[in-house]
Design goal:
With 167 residues, this protein is of the alpha/beta class. It has a single domain, classed as 3-Layer(aba) Sandwich (Trna Endonuclease, Chain: A, domain 1), CATH 3.40.1350. It has five helices and five strands.
């Protein structure tokens, strides 16, 4: 039986939601299988806040009634590399912002490169200050590809262009 347009849109939205949750849980250092423990996930984001590329506040509502609050600092590099003690300064800024808040216990620091691999220099710099480095390929392989190595488009132009097209 052929899928209707409305069924196709619903299927695409479910796939987009799944991929986004998978990426989020990867950045939160949680297993993908833990997603079922939560009823609701709320995410607020800011771009270029105090020179940090992306900041996110994540509130996870557990099915048992509990709440987890996380804050994520993401430094994204497409065509440049780290410079001038950059992520150490950003980490200090981020920690100061979340000091004495409900998010303070769950701060996450992500270095993301759109390149195929994180360079040795970038890995070393991340290691020095507690950032977790990810390459585009690593995120796609861990959060998007299925167990057969493939993936389907979401038909969200923004998501598919950034994550699933070649740079």
């Amino acid at each position: 039986m052929k899928e209707t347009t409305e069924e196709k849109k619903k299927s695409d939205r479910k796939r987009l939601t799944k991929y986004c949750k998978n990426i989020l849980f990867l950045f939160l250092e949680k297993e993908q299988t833990e997603q079922g423990k939560y009823d609701k996930i709320e995410v607020k984001t800011w771009k270029n806040w105090k020179d940090i590329d992306v900041c996110a506040e994540v509130i996870l509502q557990k099915k048992d009634g509990g709440v987890e609050k996380h804050a994520i600092s993401i430094e994204n590099k497409g065509y440049t590399t780290l410079h001038d003690n950059q992520i150490a300064r950003y980490k200090d800024t981020f920690e100061e912002e979340y000091k004495d808040t409900e998010f303070e216990r769950n701060l996450h620091y992500i270095f993301f490169t759109c390149q195929d691999e994180v360079s040795d220099y970038e890995k070393e710099e991340c290691s020095k200050v507690g950032y977790k480095p990810f390459s585009m390929d690593e995120v796609i392989n861990k959060a998007i590809r299925d167990n057969k190595g493939g993936f389907e488009l979401t038909h969200s132009d923004l998501f598919d262009e950034f994550w699933l097209s070649t740079w």
